C-alpha cells in the first residue's frame, strides 16, 4: 500500500489555522466531507469518538486520527498541515502540526490496521516531516507525500 492509494490531491490542505485539537479535527472533517460525500458532522463525531478512547497523537508532532464510517467502500485519507502546532495530548507531549487522518469502511479490519501502520512508518521519517513543515501550499504537500510512492516504485 502507498499513501497515494488512500490520499487524493483534494484531500490535502495546508498550512491551515486551528487553535485546538477539536478545531483541527473539525478542519479535517470538513476537508474529508468534500472527498467522501459524507456530512462533516458525522466524520467529526467519528474522529471524536476515537479520540475519547486515547489520543491519536503518535509523537514527533504527528497525529493519525481515524474512524470507521458507514457508506465507505475503501480506505480514504486526508492530510492537513497546521500553521501552528496544537496540543493533541500526544504520547510525547509534543504539539501536533502534521495530521494524516484515515477513514475506513466499517468492515475494513486488517486493511485499516495496515494503512495506520504505513502512515505511521512514513511519517516517522524525519526528512519527510521536515520537508512537509517547510512547504506552504497543498500541491507541494501532496507532491512530498506522493514521493513515498515514487521512491518505493523506483526501489523495486
TrEMBL record:
Residues 5-148 form the PTS EIIA type-2 domain. InterPro entries: PTrfase/Anion_transptr (IPR016152), PTS_EIIA_type-2_dom (IPR002178), PTS_Nitro_regul (IPR006320), PTS_SugarTrans_NitroReg (IPR051541). SUPFAM superfamilies: Phoshotransferase/anion transport protein (SSF55804). It comes from the Bacteria. CDD domains: PTS_IIA_fru (cd00211). PANTHER family: NITROGEN REGULATORY PROTEIN, PTS SYSTEM FRUCTOSE-LIKE EIIA COMPONENT-RELATED. This is PTS IIA-like nitrogen regulatory protein PtsN. It comes from Asticcacaulis aquaticus.
Amino acid at each position: 500500500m502507498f499513501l497515494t492509494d488512500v490520499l487524493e490531491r483534494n484531500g490535502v490542505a495546508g498550512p491551515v489555522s486551528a487553535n485546538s485539537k477539536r478545531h483541527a479535527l473539525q478542519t479535517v472533517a470538513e476537508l474529508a466531507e468534500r472527498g467522501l460525500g459524507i456530512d462533516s458532522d458525522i466524520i467529526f463525531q467519528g474522529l471524536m469518538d476515537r479520540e475519547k478512547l486515547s489520543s491519536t497523537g503518535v509523537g514527533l508532532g504527528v497525529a493519525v486520527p481515524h474512524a470507521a464510517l458507514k457508506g465507505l467502500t475503501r480506505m480514504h485519507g486526508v492530510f492537513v498541515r497546521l500553521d501552528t502546532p496544537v496540543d493533541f495530548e500526544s504520547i510525547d507531549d509534543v504539539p501536533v502540526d502534521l495530521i494524516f487522518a484515515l477513514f475506513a469502511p466499517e468492515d475494513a479490519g486488517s486493511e485499516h490496521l495496515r494503512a495506520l501502520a504505513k502512515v505511521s512508518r512514513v511519517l516517522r521519517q524525519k526528512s519527510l516531516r521536515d520537508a512537509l513543515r517547510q512547504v506552504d501550499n497543498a500541491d507541494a504537500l501532496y507532491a512530498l507525500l506522493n514521493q513515498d510512492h515514487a521512491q518505493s516504485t523506483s526501489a523495486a
